[in-house]
Design brief:
The termini are far apart. It is built from 14 helices and 15 strands. Helix 12 crosses helix 13. It is of the alpha/beta class and 431 residues long. The chain folds into 2 domains: 210 residues, Rossmann fold (3-Layer(aba) Sandwich); 220 residues, 3-Layer(aba) Sandwich (Rossmann fold), CATH 3.40.50.720. The strands form 3 sheets. An 8-stranded mixed beta sheet has the order 3-2-1-4-7-8-9-10, with helices on both faces. Strands 12-11-13-14-15 form a 5-stranded parallel beta sheet, with helices on one face. A two-stranded antiparallel sheet has the order 5-6. Belongs to the UDP-glucose/GDP-mannose dehydrogenase family.
Length: 431
């Protein structure tokens, strides 16, 4: 097949590489010229994705994959187009921001030719494929869905850093607008993906048809929103446990020892492209989902709550030297999308503290580029807030942070034996 992939980010580029590795001709489209240039010289444009550089080094010289900024070069006469342009949530209104996806859709529609399968993989609110993008493509292209082209939705279900492994591990969910569209999208993914044996599943691992685009859209939102609600529940338990002299981590370990309990871990922040965002996309079409809203609001409040606890213990944070350990939203991943480091800094600064940030994955210049003032381990500090559970922080002690008066461990990652004699607050641990 000839396949076009629109938007070569941390999901789109590995998908393009996967399709090319499966023996197909792939052209990727991206608006960033620097990204396109790097790909065409066989260089990964972002670090940390397992196998990506190795595969690019093989595919680019062989001509099986190339990148362009020109839709007219990639879209016409493609057998399939996969779109992975981002959809954001407006920080003020919590409404979906379709700016980039609308632009990508309009650009591909201008060059769409008959006979093409078009698949959206970006997480979308329920009904978006049918009600927003079907009429948009038809109006601009002059083609009719179900006759001249076929439209489907198939959510990406992978984590950055392990995309290729996840593509094999998890069933590929699909939903189309017609029977022929279903046949086409099933055949497409069966031709570009390979699946692991999964005896734990109720049916064979592979392409799973959910019947409609709406069901497929909801499946992605549901599985991610579940995680946010579960974390919200864990945080609620953790807040109660801390106030009542209980170690919630022991409670959760005990609960999860039987197969019907799957309580997640409490923490100071929920970050990343997915968990803080997709519940808002779900709420945009189901405003009555109070349990979803409550969990999202509670999780968003955790940075402020933990800093407030520090202030209560120290009396005041005015003029104190505070350090946040970890800029990345999760341990071992060099990514700051919706990272808790930003609301933690805001809460500290609002109370008069000066704030610096340490992260072993980022250089000082990279931290400054994110608007963060870097901290050098060993410099004097009054308050430390552990935000990211990097492996490097598990062995940290007051000796590494001269003068520290309090540690707020937002991930239960520090070793209590190393902090004897220095006050330490842990999310979900007894005060």
């Amino acid at each position: 097949m000839r396949i076009a992939v629109v938007a070569l980010g941390k999901i789109g580029l590995p998908l393009a590489v996967q399709f090319a590795s499966s023996g197909h001709e792939v052209v990727g489209v991206d608006v960033n010229q620097a990204t396109v240039d790097k790909i065409n010289t066989g260089q990964e444009p972002f670090p940390g994705e397992a196998e990506l550089q190795e595969r690019l080094s093989e595919l680019i010289p062989e001509g099986r994959l190339r990148a362009t900024t020109d839709y007219s070069e990639a879209i016409p006469h493609a057998d399939a187009i996969v779109i992975v342009a981002p959809v954001f949530v407006d920080e003020q209104t919590s409404e979906p921001d379709f700016t980039y996806m609308d632009s990508a859709t309009k650009s591909l529609a201008e060059h769409l030719t008959a006979g093409t399968l078009v698949v959206y993989e970006t997480t979308l609110p329920v009904g978006t494929t049918r009600n927003r993008y079907k009429p948009m493509i038809e109006e601009i292209s002059g083609l009719t869905e179900g006759v001249d082209f076929h439209l489907a939705y198939s959510p990406e279900r992978v984590l950055t850093g392990r995309v290729f492994a996840d593509l094999q591990k998890y069933p590929k969910l699909i939903g189309a607008l017609s029977a022929e569209g279903t046949r086409r999208v099933r055949n497409f993914y069966e031709a570009v993906l390979q699946f692991d044996e999964r005896p734990d599943l109720s049916r064979a691992n592979g392409v799973w048809d959910l019947g409609t685009t709406e069901a497929s859209e909801m499946a992605k939102l549901a599985e991610t929103t579940y995680r946010d609600v579960n974390i919200g529940l864990a945080n609620q338990f953790g807040l109660f446990a801390s106030a009542n002299g209980i170690d919630v981590h022991k409670v959760i370990e005990a609960c999860n020892s039987q197969p019907y309990s799957h309580i997640h871990r409490p923490g100071i922040a929920v970050g990343g492209h997915c968990i803080p965002v997709y519940p808002r996309l779900y709420l945009s079409t189901d405003p009555e989902a109070e349990i979803v809203r409550t969990a999202r609001d509670l999780n968003a409040s955790m940075p402020e709550r933990m800093v407030a606890r520090a202030e209560a213990l120290l009396g005041s944070l005015e003029g104190l030297r505070a350090v946040v350990l970890g800029a990345a939203y999760r341990g071992g991943v060099k990514e700051t999308a919706f990272s808790g480091v930003f609301p933690i800094m805001d809460a500290l600064r609002a109370r008069g503290a000066t704030v610096r940030v340490h992260d072993p994955l980022y250089s000082d210049d990279e931290l400054r580029g994110l608007g963060l003032e870097p901290y050098d381990m060993g410099d004097p500090v009054d308050l430390v807030v552990l935000h990211t559970d990097h492996a490097e922080y598990r062995e940290i002690s007051p000796a590494d942070l001269p003068g520290v008066k309090l540690c707020v461990d937002g991930r239960a990652a520090t070793d209590p034996a190393r902090w004897v004699g220095t006050p330490r607050i842990v999310v979900g641990a007894a005060e």
